[in-house]
Amino acid sequence: MFNWHNIHYIRMIIPYIFGVFTALYLVDDANQGLLLFIPAFILVPVYFFTRKKPQKYSLDVLYGIALFTLLFALGSFRQLNYNELNSPNHFTKNDNSAFLLTQVNEEPYDRENFVRVKLKVKGTIDSVGQIVKSAGSVLAYFRKPVEQNLRIGDEIIIHAENIQEVPTPRNPGEFDYKRFLSYQNIYYQVFLNETDWKTTGSFQNSVTRVASGVRQSIIATIGELFPKTEHKGFAEALLVGYRNNLNTEIVDSFSKTGTLHVLAVSGLHVGIIFLILSNLGKVFSNFRYESILKSMLVIVGIWAYAFVTGMSPSVQRAAIMFSVVQLSVIFKRKPNIYNSIFASAFLILLVNPLLIVSVSFQLSYTAVLGIVYFQPKIRHWYLPKTKVTKYIWELIAVSLAAQIATFPLGIFYFYQFPLYFLLSNLVVIPVIFIVMLALITSVSFFWIPILGSVIVWVTSLSIEFILWTVRTMQALPYSSFEHLYITPLQLVLIYLFILGLTMWLYSARKSYLYVTMCVLLLFMSTAVFRIYKINHQDFAVLHSINKHRVMSVVKGREVHFIADAEFLNDEYSQRFYLRPYIAENGLRKIYFHTWNDSVSASNFRLTDNALYLQKHILIHKKDWLFHHQFSSEKYTALIFEHWNLKRLRYLAQRELEIKEVTHWLRFE
């Protein structure tokens, strides 16, 4: 039962999160963060000084304000202090650095043409070789071939001259990679050739390095056991969270069927490990300290698994919660599940406050809160009479509860809602338990000649069944609603509506109903205003997409994309650049054309590589676009790439204005 007064950590984490967001978006100076402590330093002593004196009023309000102010200031200060740009030793503040002494901070991400590595800066090196202790992070792209096998903890010296800020998005609605990296304390990137870096031969040994080595050993074993690429990629993602070899088509299938959480190591996986370890703990049945030994086995095993899989926020949350459960067994106390959830969140955010804006953190905690609160209530809607129907109904209740809590975030971040999530989870989750158990057994006992082969064969069949199920679900008509879009304000309003409606249904207080209806009315008002704007929009956009010439002409909910044939055949680029743009502008009628097509519509005409808008003409050439506005007599050459001098001179001789296109252009 949810009781606000018994959940102490929720009253601690709310002001702390407010403080983190304030520092993240409103305050950018660590010294300003210290000023936020002043009200707390005043209110806390006042409270303790006056509480012993008889008062005509309660001091609970003063205590609440003092605690709120203190935790708010703590959140702000922790965030400002965590931001490496605020460090006086940040490497960008040393103008004399010729090289950077760095350390591999995360497991390298291997791609087709490069290896991406997060580097932690340890020092700057000037031209005479003097090392100055420094801080900061750099995202490095090592162009292949990379002969040395980079590992966590390896020391690397890189050239500092090529380091640049992470660029801002170049297209409307494009994923903001700069902001995404800033939430990981990364603000700079560098592209390195073979001659731009070298290892020092030194490395820092740590638990993370050892865990990474174990992970790589498991990945290598899986690669030997499962020669089929999609089986190998799925097994690596499922067991240890390694997604480098995971097919994008598989990820898309799981996303559209509401089972993507299976591919990200989360509380589900930790729960399976917990069950396995709990059963293994039965070997201590005849020992004197059975409960202590069993609990210690579970705690150590879960945290070992958490380190091996990379310590994602969802895994940290699950590991902390299961550890609390086991400690309560040792000390014979019954924990409050909500306190465990919010305590784990508070501890994680205390270490890394930036995780509050992590999608995986938000989805993990909203899902578990939804399951804990809604699942018991949904379960009582129907009382099954057999064990089979009871098991099925329990799975349905869990899936419904998690979906109620997470669907607003799913729409906000991924622009879609999976329609068959109940059916797909009903089939996939039970099989996942079998596959996880089979994978662990395969990796552990593959060396046994006959038994190992049988287990691997069974595992392959199970993986094939899951992939077939998900693909079949995705192929069904209306498997997911796509191109959905809600604003940040609407996201908040949806959650307020869910909260208010739930409180009204289970308390029958009319005040909750009135508040809920007001929230619904406000949401509908924002939706109607957005629909009005969409229906009256009329513009064209020149997109800035590398190696492609892409235009979009929008009128109301209709859009015509005009692009080169290579782009129209590139599904990945279309999904990355156009999907958010389509959702954000509420576009429903979508058409694609090449520059050679002849098309005529109410607001544009395309013919002979020329696009005629109401006030503009754009003429498509091989290397550039010519732009002419009817109100002007001049033509402008829009340059997309780095041109040689001959081409630029040719354009200059024709007395053309030259404009380099680095970001999108909008034509009204």
Characterize the structure shown:
This protein has 22 helices and 23 strands. About 50% of the residues lie in helices and about 15% in strands. α1 (about 10-25) packs across α4 (about 60-80) and α1 (about 10-25) runs parallel beside α12. The two termini are about 55 Å apart. β19 and β20 (about 625-630) form a beta hairpin. The strands form 4 sheets. Strands 1, 2, 3, 4, 5, 6, 7, 8 and 9 form a 9-stranded mixed β-sheet that branches. It has a 7-stranded mixed β-sheet with strand order 16-17-18-19-20-21-22, covered by helices on one side. A 5-stranded mixed β-sheet has the order 15-14-13-12-23. With about 675 residues, it is α+β, with helices and mostly antiparallel strands. The mean pLDDT is about 85. It is globular.
Tell me the layout of helices and strands:
Blueprint lengths: L7 H18 L4 H6 L1 H14 L9 H23 L16 E6 L4 E2 L3 E12 L5 E3 L3 E7 L10 E6 L4 E2 L11 H6 L5 E5 L4 E7 L3 H19 L3 H12 L7 H9 L10 H14 L9 H19 L4 H18 L6 H15 L7 H21 L7 H28 L1 E3 L2 H25 L3 H27 L4 E3 L5 H20 L2 H26 L2 E6 L6 E6 L2 E6 L1 H4 L2 H7 L1 H6 L4 E6 L4 E2 L4 E3 L2 E3 L3 E5 L3 E6 L5 E5 L5 H9 L3 E4 L4 E3 L1
Parallel strand pairs: 5-8, 14-15, 21-22
Antiparallel strand pairs: 1-3, 1-6, 2-3, 3-4, 3-5, 6-9, 7-8, 10-11, 12-13, 12-23, 13-14, 16-17, 17-18, 18-19, 19-20, 20-21
